[in-house]
Specification:
The chain is an alpha/beta fold and 324 residues long. The protein has helices at residues 15-28, 43-48, 51-58, 66-74, 104-113, 119-125, 127-139, 154-161, 174-198, 232-239, 242-250, 277-284, 300-322; strands at 2-6, 33-38, 85-88, 91-94, 143-148, 165-170, 215-221, 267-270.
Length: 324
């Protein structure tokens, strides 16, 4: 089982939409996949579920979100298996919860107290690994995709140390470059800090803690066709700085060479903006590459749907290759 987290310090670049479509494409390929919504905004959950199902979930008292699996562990009770929403036979969803953000302080406190070799603090810090490993085994998932919020808080720290791979969706602008720098620096810092804590693990700890073997698998440049609506020179000014920033601040490679984004081996995909297909996809809760004429994909949209299928298939295969 491979755990892949999509993470960017900058919001609004299409990270959640990418997780949604890659999860569906993996399902199309027959690869059993779980998508996990660990962004307190819960946008991934709302993309998958109809309004009726969302209302049913969040207005009921049934324990169906990720927070319902977290609370017993935090309270020192027996762990409760997290609910997996069956999207289809090869695709499951672990639902987000807006109240997940209230868990930040607990995680911050546990992170600090791991330095005191406290069993409880190690259990809390390892909480996402515990929940996800059990869910993946129960669903027989080969891939787990995780969506997190655009911040450098305690939730994302606990998630990333429990992940096998990190993929960064980025845009071609100044703030995305700053996001790469911030995230790369912070990921390396978190890794060093967790290694320090691992050495202090209590001998009688009964759970598996994160191994902290997380590696950066690459980046995806979002909304690449944006260059059509503004001067190509201005677009490439930022786009062609992405390879150097990623190599220096994420991979810690000081041997920086000038290379264009479209020839960089760390670039998993240059993902186009599919414009009018996006709102159509949101309305019918389907990925854009599975839209049908009955969903409104007619005329020129038919060719765009086919093109999007090919593009996401190539992206997903390259992702699998980079996350062995």
């Amino acid at each position: 089982m491979r755990t892949i987290t999509f993470f960017n310090n900058k919001g609004g670049v299409g990270k959640t939409t990418t997780v949604y479509h890659v999860a569906w494409m993996l399902s199309e390929m027959g690869i059993k996949t779980i998508a996990v919504d660990l962004d307190p905004q819960s946008n991934l959950t709302s993309m998958f579920l109809t309004d009726e199902r969302l209302e049913e979930v969040y207005e009921s008292s049934s324990p169906v979100t990720v927070l319902d699996a977290i609370i017993p562990i935090v309270n020192g009770d027996q762990a409760v298996p997290v609910h997996i929403e069956n999207i289809n036979s090869s695709l499951g969803l672990i639902l987000g919860n807006l109240a997940l953000s209230t868990f930040e302080d607990t995680l911050s406190d546990a992170w600090l107290k791991c330095l005191n070799s406290e069993i409880y603090s190690f259990k809390v810090t390892s909480i996402f690994k515990t929940i996800i490993d059990e869910a993946a085994q129960r669903f027989d998932a080969e891939i787990v995709l995780i969506d997190v919020g655009p911040n450098l808080g305690a939730i994302n720290r606990a998630v990333t140390i429990s992940s096998d791979y990190i993929i960064m969706p980025v845009a071609s602008d100044l703030f995305s470059l700053q996001g790469i720098k911030n995230l790369g620096t912070t990921l390396n810092q978190w890794k060093r800090q967790w290694n320090q804590r691992k050495d202090l693990k209590p001998q009688n700890l009964t759970i598996q803690i994160p191994e902290n073997n997380t590696s950066a698998a690459g980046y995806i440049v979002m909304q690449y066709s944006a260059k059509e609506s503004r001067p190509v020179k201005a677009y490439l000014k930022w786009a062609n700085r992405i390879p150097g920033f990623f190599k220096e601040f994420v991979l810690n490679d000081s041997n920086i060479e000038t290379i264009s984004v479209d020839s960089d081996s760390n670039c998993i995909a240059l993902l186009k903006h599919f414009r009018s297909l996006a709102p159509m996809s949101m309305e019918v809760h389907k990925p854009i590459f599975l839209l049908k004429p009955g969903d409104g994909a007619i005329g020129a949209h038919v060719y765009a749907v086919k093109a999007s299928y090919d593009e996401f298939a190539i992206l997903t295969l390259k992702m699998l290759n980079r996350c062995p």
